[in-house]
What we know:
By secondary structure, this protein is an alpha+beta fold. Helices cover 18% and strands 29% of the residues. The chain contains 13 helices and 30 strands. The two termini are 59 Å apart. The relative contact order is 0.09.
Amino acid sequence: MRRNKLIYCMMAAATMFAASCSDFDDYNEAYTGGNTESQQTLWDNISGNPELTQFAELLKKGGYDEVLKSSRFVTVWAPKDGTYDNTSLLAMDKETLVERFIKNHVANYNYNISTGDERRVYTLNEKSIIMENNTYGGLNIEKKNIPSVNGILHIIDGYAEYHPNIYEYIFESGSDSLASYFKHFEYLYFDESKSVIGPIDSLGQQTYSDSVIIKKNRLTDERTGLLNAELTNEDSVYTLLIPTDEAYKKSYDRIKSCYTYPSAGKIEYLPLTEDMVGQALPVTVQSEYVSDSLTRLRIAGNLPFTHTNKYNSWMPEVDNGNVWQSDTLCSTRWNLLSNGPEILSHTVGDVLKMSNGYVRIVDTLAVHPWESWCPEINVGIFSQDVRPLYSGCTPPTNFNVVGGTYGPDIQRYLLLDPVNDSSRPEMYFKLNNGVRSAAYNAYVVLLPEVYGESEENKITQFDVNFSYFGEGGKIVEKKFAKLITDSVNLGKVDTFHVGEIVFPYSYSATEAYPYLHLRINRNKYNSKEKNYTNRLKIAGIILRPVEYDEYLKNEE
C-alpha cells in the first residue's frame, strides 16, 4: 500500500513549455550539457559506473532499475562500493530493502548542489535528511551534479543509515504490550488531496484513478490526538519512553487498582439538588472496559516528551542550547513529573536515535502516582455546582480577605454564618469524578476570624460525613464526628486534617460522584465555653492520596 504519490513532470512536457521559464522548471530539470551522462538515464549512469556495481545490484533486486529508467524525475545519492555490507542488504526481502535502503537514497525533484547550499531533503520513504557543506546526512559527497535525462546523480562516501521514526520503532522494540495498545488506534484514511481524480461514474459520483490511502493513528497522528504527540512527524523531535513488557505489566497492575469499578457494572450516588439530597440514582459503567482503557491511557500519557518544551531541555539528548534549570519532565499530556532524573535512570542500554527523536527503553516506569493517575483533589468550593445545598445559615457567599499569613495575597473563603444563635450551619460539597479507588487524607482549609491573636478567634466543633458507594453494593456514610478546630492555629490559616477515607470504587469517567457534608456540631455552650462559636470560614477542601502524604512527610 502506497503512503504517498506525486505527479511527476515528463521531460517532453518540460521541453514543450521551455518558453515559459519558472522556478518549478528549474526545480525539476537536470543541468544537461554535451557530455555522455546527460544523454543517459539515471539507471544507465549508475549501472555503467564501476564504483556503483553493488548499488546497481541492489536497485535491480528492488525493482528500481525500472524506476530509474523511466521519465520520473528524481535525485539519487548513490553510495559507492565497499562502504556498506552488500551481502546483508541482499539478504533482505524486497519490501524491506526498498523501504530501508533504496528509498533512503532517492528523492523527488532536482537537488542540484551549489557552493554553501544547505537544504532539507525529503526522501521517498519520507525521511528528512540534511544536505549541507557538500555532505548528505553527514556523508561526504565525492561526485556531485552528474546530469541524466531523468534526474541528478551524486556519489557519496558511505550509505545513509535508515532510522525509523519513533512510531515505527514502537513495533520493532520488542515491547508487545505497548505495540498492541498503539495498534488498536490505527485506522485507514482516504487522502483526497493527494489522490488523482478520475472520471465521474454513471451515478454521478467522483472516481479516482489513483486513490491514496494513509494509515493514521488516533493516539499520535494529530496534535489533537489523545497523546498530543505527532510521533510519525519527521519534522518533530521527541523522546519516547518504551517500558519493557515486564515494566508495562507492573505499571498496569499498579495503576488499574485506582480504576476499580463494581463488577455488577452499576455505581449509585445521591444527587445534590439546590434544596435537597435526592434519591439514589444508578449509573451504568462498563467496568472492565473503562478500567482497562483508563489504565492504558495513563501509562501511554507518561511516555512522550517533546524537545520544544522548556521543562525537558535538561535531558541529555535535547540539543537546543537553552537548558532550563529543572529536574521536572513534562509529558505531551502536560503531566509534570518532578522526579525526572529517577525516571530516566531506569533506561536500559543506550539512548536510541530515531529519525524524529530518541527512544529510551525503561525497565521501570518510575512516575509518582499523584502526578499522574491518582492526583490530589482540590474541591472547587467556589463553584455553584459543588455547594448547592445548605441549611441553618445565611446563603453562603464568596468573600475575599487581604493580608494575613500570606502578606498581600488575596484569600477567598466561604462563610458558614448561622441564621441565629441556635442554628447549626451545614453545607454539602460535591466531589468531582476525579475520585479514584484509593485511600485519601481529607483536609478542610480554615481561615481565622481575624489574623493573629484576637478574642474574636474562637473554636468551632463540627462533623464531616462522606457519602459514597460501598463494597456491599449500597451507599454508605463515613462519619468524622465532633472535630474541634485547633486552638493553636486560631489566628492562622489551618489545613485541618479530618481523617482518612478509602473509596472502594473509582468515579472517573462516570456521571456519579460522592459528596462531603460539613455540619456545625454545637450551637449552645456553657459559661466556661465563651471561646466557642458556630461560624466557620472555609477556604478549601482537599483530598490528598495517603501515599502522597507519606512521601511529603519523608521529604521533610
